Amino acid sequence: MNDSGIYEGIDFMANDGSTYERYWYPDTKEVIYLLNGQYSKFTGTIYLTEDAKNAIQGFKNGRSRYLIYLDDRLVYTSDEIKPGSLPCEFSIDVTNAYKMKIVHQWDHTGYSGFYNSTDGASSTPIGNPALWK
Asked: For residue 54, what are the CA distances in angstroms to 3, 6, 15, 45, 63?
């Protein structure tokens, strides 16, 4: 893992057979990166790992999603990732943003509602995350 929290060099396989050389998932409920207006976009692919294709963290109704905030304003909410979900690419304009906050949310029942958590995050990482100048 590098200083940005990105795991590198270990191919992580998605449930559709694609692999990612770099992947990221939070070790805390939210992660903040200081961008200082130096970047133009943030890209990646949110995916379900091969070993979680039928149940996330052992929950067949488990689901997770990511929220991305720029300067404390919600700018992106991912689709729900649940067993059987296919990878979802995203590209977010971060031009002139000072800070970016990434929040992972989890619901183990499928109906009780999302809450901020690291549960399920390792089963639904962001593949090949990149900040572009």
From this structure: 32, 25, 9, 19, 11
More confident residue, 84 or 94: 94
d(CA 5, CA 33): 11
Q: Report residue 57 as tokens.
A: 């963290």
| SS3 category, 34 | strand
Classify residue 72 by burial, with Cβ atoms within 10 Å: 0-12, 13-18, 19+: exposed
Band the pLDDT of 24: cuts 50, 70, 90: confident
Instruction: Please state the pTM of the whole predicted model.
Output: 0.89
CB atoms within 10 A of CB 131: 17
Tokens of 115: 């809450």
Report the relative pairing of strands 99-107 and 115-116 from DSSP bridges: antiparallel
Neighbouring residues of 112: CB distance < 8 A, sequence distance ≥ 6: none
Give the separation between CA 117 and CA 115, rounded to whole angstroms.
Answer: 6
